[in-house]
Every structure is written in C-alpha cells, then in structure tokens.
Amino acid sequence: xxxxxxxxxxxxxxxxxxxxxxxxxxxxxxxxxxxxxxxxxxxxxxxxxxxxxxxxxxxxxxxxxxxxxxxxxxxxxxxxxxxxxxxxxxxxxxxxxxxxxxxxxxxxxxxxxxxxxxxxxxxxxxxxxxxxxxxxxxxxxxxxxxxxxxxxxxxxxxxxxxxxxxxxxxxxxxxxxxxxxxxxxxxxxxxxxxxxxxxxxxxxxxxxxxxxxxxxxxxxxxxxxxxxxxxxxxxxxxxxxxxxxxxxxxxxxxxxxxxxxxxxxxxxxxxxxxxxxxxxxxxxxxxxxxxxxxxxxxxxxxxxxxxxxxxxxxxxxxxxxx
Length: 322
Known about the structure:
The chain is mainly alpha-helical.
C-alpha cells in the first residue's frame, strides 16, 4: 500500500500536510523529525510527495513505493536467490531445480492490484468482492468460498526428484552460503524508513483529514443502506474477506461507488503522503542509494534467470502461462 488520478485541485492539500505534520509530534510510532508545511505534490530531494492512483491497475503509489520493489521485481529477486541455491547444489553434483516467477502478466494484472481500506476500484469489486486480489490458484488454496472448486493446473511441471541424506546435507549447506544471493537479499531487506512505520488502518483516527474522509464515506454507505463497522467504517457489516458471490460483489460495488463519490481513496492517500514526509526528509539520501541497489540487483537477477533456465522448473502451459 505504499503505491493516477492527479487531480489538478486537491481540496485541502495544504491543510492535510500541516495537520498531519502537527499530529506526528504526538505519535511515538513514527519519526518525529520536524518539517516545514508544504503542499502535497512538491518534492524533497527529488522524491515526489504524491499519491498516484491507477484505477486500471488498482495500485496506490506513495513516496515510499518509489523505492520499493514491485511485485514483479520481488518475484525475480526471490527467484534469483533460490536459483543461486540451485547453482550451488548443481556445482556439488545435486540437481535441485527452483521455481521461477510465474508469468509476468499475473504480477502486473493481479498482484499489482491492492486494497486500500478495502476494495477501491470497480474492477476489484466486480471480480473479487471484498477478497484481496489474487490469482485463481490462490483463491482455491486459500479456501475462498466462491473461488474455483477444483484444483487448478499446477504452475510448474514439477520434478519428482528424490534426494538422499547426503543430497539434503549439500542443499542445506548451499542455503547457508552467501555470495550473489546476498546481493539479491539486500535489495529485499528491511529499510530504516519502514521500521516502526504505523499501520495506517490503525492510526487514521489521529488525523483530522482522514477522519473527515471516513465520515463522508460512512455517511454515503448509510444512505445506500449499508451499516459501517464501528472500528473500520469503510467496511460494511456483512462484508466477507473469504467469500465471493453476487451479494458480496453487489455490496463491494456499492462501497466503491461511495468511495468514488466522496473522493475517499485520494483523500486518504494524501494523508498518508503527509505521514511519510518526515521520514522522506530524514532518509532521502538512503532511499536513493537503496533504489540503486534494488535496480542493479534486479537487472542482475533478471540476467541470471535468462542465462540459467536449466536451474528452474518449467512453466506449465496448461496453467495459462506463456
């Protein structure tokens, strides 16, 4: 949820920045660095202080997201880490194939879509209701009611490899080795500006502009015949995160319509941008350095996967992947 509707006039954007920065002084879970009030949409050390919404993809891009791996980048880096394990094992005479990323389109069309205080796009609501966007295979294995009733085709053509005790020892030894995998891991490591970052869905009441947006949404939901849940008013009574059916989809579409009518998602995201401002100012240099590490590691991992297909299981064409 650190992820476009760039409205030319964001109502109260300056007030958001001022109000949130002031509120931070009494919040111990976030950095207390003092920043000068500024309008959302400006930059700090080349970092854009914007919340970009892409309703087609379903992504919400916040300042921190500019320095975090995308779902596809994370998948490639993770596969790079496992591939170095396979290479190490092969060098020691043990064939141990890793899983490659599934088709890139799945990450771009499904896993780049995210809930932000629940579903916020028509596409999310119509396809998944209140369930987190996910592939049909995940719907099945996560036991989502209304998902596929039969196990989907496996993503990979699995190896039925049997390993001896010695083989297992070699594989375990390789897991403990550093080297290239360490570089990929460093790109995915925890970053200081994310440490102790508050869960927005738990602290939104600390910020007047967020409260106002939630109140407007709750009022719309009530007018549409839904009952907002007290602790999470963006979530109507009866909404299920584990079920997809006509009732859930209809209810989710109503929620999205209300969010659109009061500009809820943009308003909430703008507040979160302001929450991130002090940490952006404090860690701007480290953010840029980390992005360099991430980009370099992703490029090298992509090259590693392309040059070493034999280290990985084959994708199963029957699963719908290329």
